[in-house]
Design brief:
MetI-like fold, 2 domains, two-stranded antiparallel ribbon, 16 helices, 2 strands, 73% helix
């Protein structure tokens, strides 16, 4: 009995009390984890519900939406909105191809340029890094305005009705350069110095050492660039006229909605019997068509995206 009592007391600490408190801590941690999972699940469902409503409304008859509003499950199923949008499938496919092409080319090219710029600006041995960094930051505060920008693209660069008018202005973003620069600061400069001593050139160091190390930042910046190109419609509206065979997807869908609204309003103004155009369903269908493909790309870069955005936010 005495030996058991001594075994339970070590250096004045009651082991049984310690084990009991440890079990209490485990239970409290599990409880907190359960609460966190439940809370996160509820928030996730609330974030998904709007998109489910959009999908449901795109397959709902216009009259049902007018009478009962939006619902998670369509009261009256209809494909009329998608039939109207895909009335000319060649245009839809062409717009998809243009958007995908600009997204891929713009993202890859812009990512390479932004990575090189951020790498150069964080190098301690680059004497003009502070001046150029201030110049880039200054552009976030002031801009030349729409008219000078339009004249630059159409008159100076002669890019009217050219896809480069949409591609080039979005290649670089001051915010993305700053994000990349702050992330690359986390890479020790001693690695670059060691590679230089071994005889490696700057471009070799950038390709073989910096880029593989900066995967989180590359995924983050690449996702932002891809979303920008995929959702672009404003520059397309300014610089791409009807002479262009296929315009980007967002502009095509925007024009489709406006044309359908114009036909409906013109018919109503001319006392023509009401034309059955499901405007609300078409709006939701265009949202599904425009956002659906890009949503599937996010899970592949989610891990790098979260890591890159947090590191880029605290470094610097």
């Amino acid at each position: 009995m005495q030996n058991n009592a001594n075994a339970d007391v070590i250096s004045g600490i009651d082991v049984r009390k310690f084990e009991g408190s440890h079990k209490v801590i485990d239970k409290s941690q599990r409880f907190i984890q359960v609460i966190g999972v439940v809370f996160t699940g509820i928030i996730s469902m609330l974030c998904i519900l709007p998109f489910i409503l959009i999908i449901s409304a795109s397959f709902t008859e216009e009259r049902s939406i007018t009478l009962y509003g939006f619902s998670l499950i369509p009261r009256a199923w209809s494909l009329s909105a998608y039939r109207l949008i895909f009335m000319n499938p060649k245009q839809v496919v062409g717009s998809y191809c243009v958007t995908i092409g600009m997204t891929v080319i713009g993202t890859v090219t812009g990512l390479f340029i932004i990575a090189m710029t951020g790498y150069a600006l964080q190098r301690p041995d680059f004497p003009l890094r502070n001046v150029i960094s201030f110049y880039i930051y200054f552009t976030t505060l002031f801009s030349g305005g729409l008219i000078p920008f339009y004249m630059l693209i159409t008159q100076t660069l002669k890019l009217k009705d050219n896809y480069l008018a949409v591609l080039l202005p979005l290649l670089m973003s001051p915010w993305l350069i700053i994000l990349m620069k702050n992330f690359l600061k986390s890479i020790p400069h001693s690695i670059t110095e060691s590679a230089t001593i071994d005889g490696a050139g700057d471009f070799y160091i950038f390709i073989k050492i910096i880029l593989p190390t900066a995967k989180p930042a590359l995924a983050t910046v690449g996702l932002f660039l891809a979303l920008t190109y995929w959702n672009e419609w404003y520059n397309s509206m300014l610089f791409l006229s009807s002479k262009v065979a296929y315009r980007p997807l967002q502009l095509f869908l925007y024009n489709t909605i406006n044309e359908a609204r114009y036909i409906r309003d013109s018919a109503a103004a001319s006392n023509i019997p009401a034309i059955d155009i499901p405007m609300e369903s078409m709006k939701m269908a265009t949202a599904v068509i425009a956002t659906g493909p890009i949503i599937f790309a996010y899970p592949f870069v989610q891990k790098y995206f979260i890591q890159g955005i947090t590191v880029g936010a605290v470094k610097g």
